[in-house]
Amino acid sequence: MAATVKAINAKIRSNKVLDYFCSTHFWGPASNFGIPIAAVLDTQKDPEIISGTFTAALTVYSGTFMRYALAVQPKNYLLFACHFVNFNAQLTQGYRWYDYWYRGGQDRWAKIRAEAAKVEGKTESIAETAKTKVAGAVEEAKKTVS
């Protein structure tokens, strides 16, 4: 069993591509990419829920690890890309937080929420009208078939 594991490991380590994909140099940043993906998706949400303190901490964290990714040998460009994306997403979130709380964004977002509520109300009334018409058509069809 140990000989089999050693043989598989030697086969993996002899191939540069497999060696890279089986290393922490790849899997560390790959698993860490959940943070920047979530940050980018959060840029589409209401800025009221943004934590300024947490956003600042993640900005510093990503800036620090961008530097670390280039300081290690060999340079880890995948880790750099991960933190570069997160750094920029956090800067965007930081701007949105500042704009919302200190530059009058609350008023603009109140208008956006009011418009969304109007559209949702119209959508619900259209859906109710459609349900009524469909129910009427079903009753007509049942009468015709009977």
From TrEMBL:
Keywords: Membrane, Mitochondrion, Mitochondrion inner membrane, Transmembrane, Transmembrane helix, Transport. Its main location: mitochondrion. GO terms for biological process: pyruvate import into mitochondria. It is a multi-pass membrane protein. It is found in: Mitochondrion inner membrane. Pfam families: MPC. One of its GO terms (cellular component) is mitochondrial inner membrane. The keyword Repeat does not apply. PANTHER family: UPF0041 BRAIN PROTEIN 44-RELATED. Belongs to the mitochondrial pyruvate carrier (MPC) (TC 2.A.105) family. Mediates the uptake of pyruvate into mitochondria. This is Mitochondrial pyruvate carrier. It comes from Exophiala xenobiotica.
